[in-house]
Amino acid sequence: MKENSVDIIITDPPYEINYSGGKWDNTALLLQSETHQKFLRVLKTGATIIVSINKIK
């Protein structure tokens, strides 16, 4: 993707609750600074990020 080309990111990342033992749900993807850098690289100034997260108990 081109830099500064995205108006909005809507994501529903893994909840990190180890659902049914799946590796996909144990990645800490949203916590990785590399993920944040990728978001910021493609987002336009003033863009929006919407993240769906699970209620933490």
Spell out the key features of this protein.
single chain, 57 residues, alpha+beta, two-stranded parallel sheet, elongated
Task: Please provide a written account of the structure.
The chain has about 55 residues and is of the alpha+beta class. Helix content is about 20%, strand content about 25%. The protein has one domain (about 5-50). The chain has one helix at about 35-40; strands at about 5-10, 45-50. It has a two-stranded parallel sheet with strand order 1-2. β1, α1 and β2 form a beta-alpha-beta unit. The longest helix has 10 residues, at about 35-40. The radius of gyration is 13 Å and the shape is elongated. The mean pLDDT is about 85.
TL;DR?
18% of the residues lie in helices and 26% in strands. By secondary structure, the chain is α+β, with helices and mostly antiparallel strands.
